[in-house]
Specification:
Pfam families: DDE_3 (PF13358), HTH_38 (PF13936), HTH_Tnp_Tc3_2 (PF01498)
Helix content: 40-55%
Strand content: 5-15%
Domain Transposase Tc1-like: 71-141
Strand order of the largest sheet: 3-2-1-4-5
GO molecular function, one term: DNA binding
Protein name: Transposase
Largest sheet: 5 strands, mixed
InterPro entries: Homeodomain-like_sf, IS30-like_HTH, RNaseH_sf, Tc1-like_DDE_dom, Transposase_5, Transposase_Tc1-like, WH-like_DNA-bd_sf
CATH architecture of the largest domain: 2-Layer Sandwich
Number of domains: 3
Order of helices and strands: HHHHHHHHEEEHEHEHHH
CATH topology of the largest domain: Nucleotidyltransferase, domain 5
Number of strands: 5
Radius of gyration: 32 Å
Shape: elongated
Structural class: alpha/beta
Length: 346
């Protein structure tokens, strides 16, 4: 039998008012459309306790002890990839009365251990962490004006049909309606590879890379896009940032940049390996992708047009926010001893 719904505080108060006015319990039950027993117990509870609120209940006893709760918590911390069923099986192997997987998951939630999708990151060796830590310490006292002298550069690939989850509102039987579907094409329907840069609170060129970008192509980008943008956005002896991609560190490109450095045109920032999370260009690419996805590109040429249009709409305020964030990034890397940090908290 289903449990009767508990009386509200308003109903209980109405019972007391009517009782004080001289109504019988049966008359009250009929007037409020509730059972006689409900009226009877409410009146007697008030007479005994002086309140019309529920008595404190002991509740159902916990089926795990503090020691067992600790075992669940510690086991999960020792092996973060253990699932709820695995932890329950391990615990139940020592108990006479087994506990359910749901109970184990509740104990984990109580301990603040929530199940989340693993974030993929490049494996950092000790040498990589040392380089990241050294870079952060060398730049932690840089001012905002110092960072504005840096020309940030990077390459990125954009898919015509992205892989993000898309949400739609539909009724129960509208699952296969055309307006409730999103197009799916093998290999993303094609992609557009771009090189871009920004510095001094302004975006530079957005260059479309066709085919495979080799060292000769990258040297051409440096000559016709990176250096001209650095000079126009920042000025003489700007600081060029680039990652450690093999084509970037090729002899051809190193020699070309070395000649320009000797001529006082630019300086080269030493960049630690596996450190895309330090480069504000990554956040700029994410912002650009969000802007383009709203317009639903239909082809590679259409995607390239939208990328150019969105690139021109990037505001100086947003770029300055990316620049002012970098000192916090340095401190986060130092706090992580050169390891990865929670980017959402920076």
């Amino acid at each position: 039998m289903a449990r009767n719904k508990e009386l509200s505080s308003e109903t209980r108060q109405s019972i007391l008012v009517l009782r004080n006015e001289g109504y019988s319990m049966r008359e009250i039950a009929k007037k409020l459309k509730i059972s006689y027993n409900a009226v009877y117990y409410s009146v007697h509870r008030t007479a005994q306790t002086g309140s019309n609120q529920n008595r404190n209940r002991s509740g159902r006893p916990r089926c795990t002890t503090e020691q067992e709760d600790k075992y669940i918590r510690v086991s999960s911390l020792r092996n973060r990839r253990l699932t709820g069923p695995q932890l329950a099986a391990s615990l139940n192997s020592t108990l006479k009365t087994p506990v359910s997987t749901s109970t184990v998951k509740r104990r984990l939630r109580d301990a603040g251990l929530l199940g989340r999708v693993v974030k993929k990151k490049t494996c950092l060796r000790l040498a990589n962490k040392k380089k990241r830590l050294r870079w952060a310490k060398e730049h932690r006292h840089w001012t905002e004006e110092d960072w504005k002298k840096v020309l940030w550069t990077d390459e990125s690939k954009f898919e015509v049909f992205g892989s993000q989850r898309t949400f739609v509102r539909r009724r129960k039987n509208e699952k296969m309606l055309e307006e409730c579907l999103t197009p799916s094409v093998k290999h993303g329907g094609g992609n557009v590879m771009v090189w871009g840069c920004f510095g001094g609170g302004k975006v530079g060129d957005l260059y479309r890379v066709k085919g495979i970008l080799k060292k000769e192509g990258y040297q051409s980008i440096l000559q016709h896009h990176a250096i001209p943008c650095g000079q126009s956005l920042i000025g003489a002896n700007f600081l060029l940032q680039q990652d450690n991609d093999p084509k970037h560190s090729s002899k051809l490109c190193k020699n070309y940049l070395g000649k320009n450095q000797s001529a006082g045109i630019l300086s080269i920032m030493e960049w630690p390996e596996h450190s895309s999370d330090l480069n504000p260009m990554e956040l700029l690419w994410e912002q650009l992708d969000r802007m383009v996805r709203k317009k639903c590109p239909s082809s590679q040429s259409n995607l390239w047009e939208m990328l150019q249009e969105a690139w021109g709409e990037i505001s100086s305020d947003y770029l300055n926010k990316l620049t002012t964030r970098i000192p916090k990034v340095c401190m986060a890397v130092i706090a992580a001893n050169g390891g990865f940090f929670d980017e959402s908290k920076v």
